[in-house]
Design a protein that fits this description.
It holds the Pfam family 7TM_GPCR_Srsx. This is G-protein coupled receptors family 1 profile domain-containing protein. The chain is an all-alpha fold. Helix content is about 75%, strand content about 0%. It has six helices and no strands.
């Protein structure tokens, strides 16, 4: 087998997943605990209530949502089961939203730090970050969902069944 041949059988994939998923799950408690420490420090300390520190605490919350995406697939991989598309869709909605929000928060933290360094006299200008975060968050979470809805009939049917609407049957 050459180094560029990326074909892998289902059995090889399951063997690989059984070895990797316990290692991946071993890091999960550390990630969650450390992010909870960041959140608790921001809440308890009055000195950590600046815009940047609040954004960092929100980043820690979104990271917890992102890390939660590994539990269900790793558990099924360890048991040697594949996950159906509909199960994957429902179990990845919250981590997907957390991931989108995480990218937004990194951008806003950078923007806040830039304003504080470039315009130190106008520190109150960094409140623009708080004002801008709402619309950016809404767009950042909504647009990928709309794209999935438009491009994938599987996701479209899952969203319709989520809201109690029967999937449309296309006549052939």
């Amino acid at each position: 087998m050459s180094l560029v041949d990326l074909r892998i059988t289902e059995d090889e994939l399951l063997v690989f997943a059984r070895h990797i998923s316990p290692v991946y799950m071993a890091f999960l408690p550390f990630c969650v605990i450390l992010n909870i420490i960041i959140i608790a420090a921001t809440i308890k300390s009055s000195r950590l209530r600046s815009n940047c520190n609040i954004l960092i605490a929100l980043q820690a919350v979104s990271d917890i949502f992102v890390f939660s995406s590994s539990i269900y697939p790793a558990y099924n991989a360890f048991l040697g089961r594949f996950v159906s598309v509909s199960d994957c869709f429902f179990h990845q909605m919250i981590p997907f939203a957390g991931g989108c929000f995480s990218y937004l928060l990194v951008l806003l933290i950078g923007f806040d730090r830039y304003l504080c360094v470039a315009y130190p006299i106008l520190v109150n200008l960094s409140q623009a970050v708080e004002f801008a975060s709402g619309p950016f968050a809404a767009v950042n979470v909504t647009i990928p969902c709309i794209i999935y809805y438009k491009l994938s009939s599987v996701y479209r049917d899952e969203i319709r069944s989520l809201f109690g609407v029967k999937p449309q049957v296309v006549p052939t």
